[in-house]
Design brief:
The chain is an alpha/beta fold. It has 3 domains: 106 residues, 2-Layer Sandwich (Gyrase A, domain 2), CATH 3.30.1360.120; 136 residues, Up-down Bundle (Four Helix Bundle (Hemerythrin (Met), subunit A)), CATH 1.20.120.430; 161 residues, Rossmann fold (3-Layer(aba) Sandwich). Helices cover 46% and strands 17% of the residues. A 7-stranded mixed beta sheet has the order 3-4-5-6-2-1-7, covered by helices on one side. The protein has a 6-stranded mixed beta sheet with strand order 9-10-8-11-12-13, with helices on both faces. It starts with a strand and ends in a 6-residue tail after the last helix. Bound molecules: the ligand Nc1nc2c(c(=O)[nH]1)N(C=O)[C@@H](CNc1ccc(C(=O)N[C@@H](CCC(=O)O)C(=O)O)cc1)CN2, guanosine-5'-triphosphate (GTP) and magnesium ion (MG). Homodimer. Heterotetramer of two MnmE and two MnmG subunits. Its EC number is 3.6.-.-. InterPro entries: G_TrmE, GTP-bd, GTP-bd_TrmE_N, GTPase_MnmE, MnmE_dom2, MnmE_helical, P-loop_NTPase, Small_GTP-bd.
């Protein structure tokens, strides 16, 4: 195994920068670049101890005064000998110290290579390693809670219990298939069917957590729609906290889609403000209306804006019928200016009808509560494990497909060794998910997403 080095702190100026060196020669590399102030040799330092001293360049000129921290294998993040040089946090300075580490025998670390080594040393499962990246990129409390429970092995345990059940079924089947003439209790198709159906339901529950994690991570694709002049752009500006969209009292002001990401409590909304929906002879506006309808089709959340000061018009009804049963909130804007709109007309179609004034900000709290209820009320318990990326979800889905095929095979009375093959595939897919039996290529792919130094 080589000895690797990288700057583990951000690629920016800061108070302190940490250069991490890990591998069998980590302490030799450290001893070559670092001269301790107390004169005691680095090679004699115990794990979890520090020393103050100087980094010297190849000509013996001081580069910086630093703190060296020593970790002794296996008690380190990577499980290897590790030396950390904490120097002053200049970009040029930290890169110079890193270069000296390379000159002293270390190799540049690949993205995620420290964590990959921790995985290979058995310190982390693959899902736990992935959680490290989630921790780093978490943008809020809910995301942090998911990443932390992933780190604590929640997903690993949940998947592992499914793998365990599969292994028990497989060993029953193996005994039956291999020794049919012996006095082994037969595998009852009904019992097998029931076990597999329950297992499929477990996996389906795990798969459904993915959407929650994705919503926290990527935000909700949200479209603001409605007929012209109802106040869509004013709402866009209210939500984003600045004058993002042009607002006028001229119907047909917005034409192009205006996009902005905003944070609302635990939710991130990826907002698109669109052209007011109407038939118009203006070609440019008409193109805007077409795009608005397209965005409406793709959106995960529809903020359907209506004008409280006017009764529902045909364009409003057309919008309502297009929305159908999609995830949507009816917003009755301009609540400050009167109410010609009776909410009952809308509550037949929408679970939430919220009067607001985008102009004064009235009702925004209620809107936020409605959106939280819509997206987070059936949120899974982060403690129980939330899938955090596409790879994990695809593995669960593949395992579910194998199990569905096995159930179909049992029901159509196919030979049990055929069922065994399918369940073997399912078990292998779950072992790939946790990394217990992942190929080199899968592992490479996981760590390629990481940053250098992690
Ligand atoms: N300076 C520094 N801070 C850091 C890290 C690091 O590598 N260096 N980490 C890197 O991302 C995180 C901490 N991760 C670590 C994980 C395990 C061990 C460790 O020494 N494990 C031992 C002892 C465990 C124990 O005492 O229970 C072991 O596994 O045997 C150290 C850091 C965050 N902060
Ligand atoms: N009284 C009142 N007026 C509002 C409110 N929201 C918007 N308006 C006014 O309504 C007019 C239209 O607002 P916009 O936000 O441009 O409406 P829009 O839906 O984006 O219109 P288009 O882009 O043309 O489709 C402007 O004169 C706003 O000042 C509100 O809550 N109360
Ligand atoms: Mg507008």
């Amino acid at each position: 195994m080589s000895t690797i080095a990288a700057i583990s702190t951000p690629n920016a100026v800061g108070g302190i920068a940490v250069i991490r060196v890990s591998g069998p020669d980590a302490l030799t590399v450290a001893a070559r670049v670092f001269t301790p102030a107390n004169g005691k040799p680095v090679s004699g330092m115990a794990g979890y101890t520090c020393a103050y001293g100087t980094v010297l360049d190849q000509d013996g000129n001081p580069v910086d005064d630093v703190v060296l921290t020593v970790f002794r294998a296996p008690h380190s993040y990577t499980g290897e000998d590790t030396a950390e040089l904490s120097c002053h946090g200049g970009l040029f300075l930290s890169r110079q110290v890193l270069r000296l580490c390379f000159a002293a025998g270390a190799e540049p670390a690949q993205p995620g290579e420290f964590t990959k080594r921790a995985f290979l040393a058995g310190k982390l499962s693959l899902t736990q390693a992935e959680s490290v990246m989630d921790l780093i990129s978490a943008q809020g409390d809910a995301q942090l809670r998911c990443a932390r429970s992933l780190r604590e092995g929640a997903v690993f345990r949940r998947i592992h219990s499914c793998t365990d059940q599969l292994v028990v079924l497989l060993s029953d089947l193996a005994a039956w298939v291999d020794y049919p003439e012996e006095d082994i209790p037969s595998v009852e198709p009904d019992a097998l069917d029931a076990s597999l159906t329950a297992l499929h339901a477990d996996l389906s529950a795990i798969a459904s957590t993915y959407d929650y994690g994705r919503i926290l991570r990527e935000g909700i694709n949200t479209v603001i729609v409605g007929r012209p002049n109802v106040g869509k752009s004013t709402l866009m500006n209210r939500l984003s906290g600045f004058e993002r969209s042009i607002v006028t009292d001229i119907a047909g002001t917005t034409r192009d889609v205006v996009e902005e990401s905003v944070r609302l409590g635990d939710l991130t909304l990826r907002l698109s403000d669109t052209a007011g929906l109407r038939d118009t002879p203006d070609r440019i506006e008409q193109l805007g209306v077409e795009i608005a309808y397209r965005r409406l089709e793709e959106a995960e959340l529809i903020l359907a804006v209506f004008d409280s000061t006017a009764p529902l018009l045909p364009q409003d009804r057309e919008l309502i019928s297009r929305i159908g049963k999609r995830r949507a909130v009816a917003i009755c804007n301009k609540s400050d200016a009167g109410s010609s709109l009776t909410p009952d007309e809308l509550s037949a179609h929408f679970a939430y009808v919220i009067p607001i004034s985008a102009k004064t900000g009235e009702g925004m709290e209620q809107l936020s509560s409605a959106l939280h209820a819509l997206f987070l009320s059936d949120a899974p318990d982060p403690q129980a494990g939330v899938l955090s990326n596409e790879r994990q979800k695809l593995c669960v889905e593949r395992a579910m497909e194998h199990i569905s095929a096995a159930i179909a095979a049992v029901r159509s009375g196919e030979p049990l060794d055929c069922v065994t093959v399918l369940l073997d595939d399912a078990a292998n897919t779950l072992l790939e998910l946790t990394g217990e039996r992942a190929t080199e290529a899968v592992v490479e792919q996981v760590f390629a997403r990481f940053c250098v130094g992690k």
